[in-house]
Design brief:
With 97 residues, this protein is of the alpha+beta class. The protein is built from two helices and four strands, in the order βαββαβ. This is Antibiotic biosynthesis monooxygenase.
Length: 97
């Protein structure tokens, strides 16, 4: 079952996001799903919100997210954001272009 995942990063900005992406992709950047190297990502959007930064993703399954979390979780921790807990809800409908 697809899931919707939202990461709220209070007090963080685009700099943290860019640092995580750089490390997850070995500095290659993230412009296509293949850049992550972990299958299962359906959509990804990130941007500033009042007081922080938000990332919202749709994953094919909780297992796919868990696999990816093994990569980005330690990176977030290393950058001082080990306490980030995403909000995860089941997706009722997912439409992509």
């Amino acid at each position: 079952m697809a899931i919707i995942v939202t990461f709220d990063l209070p007090g963080a900005g685009q700099e943290l996001y860019d640092a995580v992406i750089a490390r997850v992709t070995d500095g290659q950047g993230f412009t296509q799903f293949a850049d992550l190297g972990n299958p299962g990502l359906v959509s990804h959007a990130a941007g500033p919100v009042d007081g922080g930064f938000r990332v919202t993703e749709v994953w094919e399954s909780a297992e796919a997210l868990e696999t990816h979390a093994k990569t980005f979780g330690p990176i977030l921790a290393d950058l001082g954001h080990a306490d980030v807990q995403p909000t995860i809800i089941p997706a009722h409908n997912v439409v992509v272009r």
